[in-house]
Amino acid sequence: MKVIVTKNYEESCQVTANMILDQVRANPASKLGLATGGTAEPVYPIMVDACKKGEVDFSQITTVNLDEYMGMDPTNDQSYRYYMNQRFFIPAGIDLARTFVASGKNDPEKEIALFNEKLYGDGHFVDIQLLGIGVSGHIGFNEPGTMISGVHVQKLEESTIKANARFFENEADVPTEAMTMGLGDILKAGKIVLIATGANKAPALRKVLLDDEVTADVPATVLKMHRDVTIVIDEALAAEIGWKN
Ligand code: GLP
After folding, report:
1. Which neighbouring-strand residues pair with 99?
2. Rounded to whole angstroms, how far apart are CA atoms 143 and 110?
3. CB atoms within 10 A of CB 122
4. How confident is the model at residue 217 (pLDDT cuts 50, 70, 90)?
5. In this predicted model, what pLDDT tens digit does every residue of 47-85 receive, in sequence order?
6. Fewest CB within a 10 Å sphere: which of 75, 142, 177, 197?
7. What is the distance between the alpha carbons of residues 84 and 75, in angstroms, rounded to a whole number?
8. pLDDT tens digit string along 121-159?
9. Quick one: which atom of ligand 1 is closest to the CA of 66?
10. Which ligand 1 atom is nearest residue 178's CA?
11. Residue 40 CA, closest ligand 1 atom number
């Protein structure tokens, strides 16, 4: 596992965006695994900017997003589809037909089949997967206690609902379930880049970085089993974790 310690969160976003941009420059027809959440948010405008300056061509990429809230209409401004359209796909001029964010409104069984089709139907696995990490240690929405390999519907932890309540008017509005790539789906990506900031992520990252255990208590520990993972953290978080390069 490679760990990049940056001066600050802004630099972390730049480093993370550069890794995705480098992947697309190396293979313009890359399949990108994308993530939402607050931490990843500033990564997208950096990629949009590179596209507007002609430094990268996104016309041939395809994308698959990690997760979506169940019951959430894709047009709802809290949906991950809306987040991706607004922050990346539309400003970068990406054909939405080349993008996939699961719909929280469709029949779950049919949607899981479609999700798998998008992940594996063309025989082209995700080339680079962007990840954040939940305070619970989740990646995607794979919560503690579950080690499910494939796409599934996941009940959200209380801590996740509380953490994500900041994006909603009331905590009661936060959906209690999500559809997510499973841990095996995430591990099939060619490369993985995880960006994190904030002291509240330190306990989970300590379990990822400072011991050899792979445990369902902290699902992100499965990343130890992948051969090309980069974790991007800033100095403040590194100090909090107790990580020294
Ligand atoms: C969210 C998302 C994850 C995200 C994580 C961290 O709930 N499902 O994909 O990486 O939790 O979110 P944030 O970056 O807002 O802390």
Report:
1. 63
2. 23
3. 10
4. very high
5. 999 999 999 999 999 999 999 999 999 999 999 999 999
6. 75
7. 11
8. 999 999 999 999 999 999 999 999 989 999 999 999 999
9. 9
10. 8
11. 14
Are residues 213 and 221 in contact, defined by beta-carbon separation less than 8 angstroms? yes
Percent of the chain with pLDDT over 70: 100
What is the predicted pLDDT for the residue at 156? Answer: 96
Tell me, in angstroms, the distance from the centre of ligand 1 to residue 109's CA.
24
Nearest CA to ligand 1 atom 3: 140
Task: Output the ligand 1 site: residues, CB below 6 A.
Answer: 35-39, 66-67, 132-134, 140-141, 160, 164
**Hey, CA dihedral for 230, 8, 180, 44, is it positive or negative?**
negative
The amino acid at residue 195 is I
Ligand 1 mean position, distance from CA 26 (Å): 28
The domains of the chain, with CATH numbers, are 2-241 (3.40.50.1360)
Closest-lying ligand 1 atom to the alpha carbon of residue 201: 16
